């Protein structure tokens, strides 16, 4: 198979979808790998690193899309890339379709095969290609939140861990999954008072057992949430429904209950966000303020730590990418149910319920009779 790896062009996105080690694995398995020049530089990998393992370098993103049967990316194609996607081309990346109707319609029109990292799912319902970036984003949420609690950036002027004689900050984490767990570990480690909320009582029992003494668990409902936001200094939205739009749990009216200078970090913003007033921002302009409340809503948080993020991500994605390359996508998804759940759009048909529901589109069955060459 011909593998194409374009340089990410989303604002301040420095990750790359295939490392030199990954390129070497593809070449060893008999595949051709085309890397856009400088695609790996943001993550610390030079063009020479790729050339040494047998990858071929191309000057432009247009050349990569034109030659590749499978495109490996980190983030969803943006508007400039829409015309480059070809019919029957396999695109393997994070898509988060439910948060963008424009992207969804563009990929339907392209008639490409869109296999989304975020909906590849194991039998235990875990999301193996989302977990590594959720771990990074959860930890970053606290780092960034602590930074923006500073007065120069509009925050309350609160030190997360406090000092002797001064109470630490109150951190509220909404959602007890991977993001929430990692955020709680970081916040607790820095000495904050942490409250975790989730609707799953069994998950809260587990978290109660593993978390340190400065982490409390509370069942999530509207009343409890309204009470909790009144005393929080930093609120982390960490709610995800796989492949679907996140629900708005923190509403605009709740901002009036918060203390001026409270910081909101919505980690789910690339899937629509669980904080109503959050809209996607970039690392270049990461925050905005509404009603005196600081909103940090960067849609590609792990892109700020690309070396760590790229290695964490590709450790998880490469085995699946090799299956797709070695077997072809049809055989690979037939034999691997985890990969089959990653299919979101196939040759113009929406085949993933969360995407269809988000935009009232017809949900089509996955047809795997034969593979059409790219």
Automatic annotation (TrEMBL):
Record-linked InterPro entries: Ala_DH, Ala_DH/PNT_CS2, AlaDH/PNT_N, AlaDH/PNT_NAD(H)-bd, NAD(P)-bd_dom_sf
Catalytic activity: L-alanine + NAD(+) + H2O = pyruvate + NH4(+) + NADH + H(+)
Cited Pfam families: AlaDh_PNT_C, AlaDh_PNT_N
Highest taxon listed in the record's lineage: Bacteria
CDD domains: L-AlaDH
Domain (Alanine dehydrogenase/pyridine nucleotide transhydrogenase N-terminal): residue spans on this chain: 4-137
EC number: 1.4.1.1
Domain Alanine dehydrogenase/pyridine nucleotide transhydrogenase NAD(H)-binding residue range list: 149-297
GO aspect biological process, one term: L-alanine catabolic process
Any single Gene Ontology cellular-component annotation: plasma membrane
GO molecular function: alanine dehydrogenase activity; nucleotide binding
Binding, substrate: 15, 75
Annotated family: Belongs to the AlaDH/PNT family.
NCBIfam families in UniProt: alaDH
The protein's name in its UniProt record: Alanine dehydrogenase
Organism in which the protein naturally occurs: Pedobacter aquae
């Amino acid at each position: 198979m011909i593998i194409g790896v374009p340089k990410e062009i989303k604002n301040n996105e420095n990750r790359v979808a295939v490392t030199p080690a990954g390129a070497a694995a593809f070449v060893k398995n008999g595949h051709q790998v085309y890397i856009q020049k400088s695609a790996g530089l943001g993550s610390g990998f030079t063009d020479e690193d790729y050339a040494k393992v047998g990858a071929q370098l191309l000057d432009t993103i247009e050349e990569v899309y034109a030659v590749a049967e499978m495109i490996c990316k980190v983030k969803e194609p943006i508007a400039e890339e829409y015309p480059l996607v070809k019919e029957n081309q396999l695109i393997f990346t994070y898509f988060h379709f439910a948060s963008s109707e424009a992207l969804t319609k563009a990929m339907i029109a392209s008639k490409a095969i869109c296999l989304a990292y975020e909906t590849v799912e194991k039998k235990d319902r875990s999301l193996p290609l989302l977990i590594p970036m959720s771990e990074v984003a959860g930890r970053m949420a606290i780092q960034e939140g602590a930074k923006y609690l500073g007065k120069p950036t509009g925050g309350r002027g609160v030190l997360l861990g406090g000092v002797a004689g001064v109470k630490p900050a109150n951190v509220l984490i909404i959602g007890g999954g991977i993001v929430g767990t990692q955020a709680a570990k970081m916040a607790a480690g820095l000495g904050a008072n942490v409250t975790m909320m989730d609707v799953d009582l069994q998950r809260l029992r587990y978290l109660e057992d593993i978390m340190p003494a400065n982490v409390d668990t509370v069942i999530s409902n509207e009343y409890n949430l309204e009470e909790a936001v009144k005393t929080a200094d930093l609120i982390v939205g960490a709610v995800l429904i796989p492949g679907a739009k996140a629900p708005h749990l923190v509403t605009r009216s709740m901002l009036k209950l918060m203390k001026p200078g409270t910081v909101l970090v919505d980690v789910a913003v690339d899937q629509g966000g669980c904080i109503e007033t959050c809209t996607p921002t970039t690392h270049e302009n990461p925050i905005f303020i509404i009603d005196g409340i600081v909103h940090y809503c960067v849609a590609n948080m792990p892109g700020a730590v690309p070396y760590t993020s790229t290695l964490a991500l590709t450790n998880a994605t490469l085995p699946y990418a090799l299956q797709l390359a070695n077997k072809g996508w049809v055989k690979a998804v037939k034999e691997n149910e985890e990969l089959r759940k990653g299919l979101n759009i196939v040759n113009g048909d929406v085949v993933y319920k969360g995407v269809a529901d988000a935009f009232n589109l017809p949900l089509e069955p996955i047809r795997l009779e034969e593979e059409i060459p790219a």
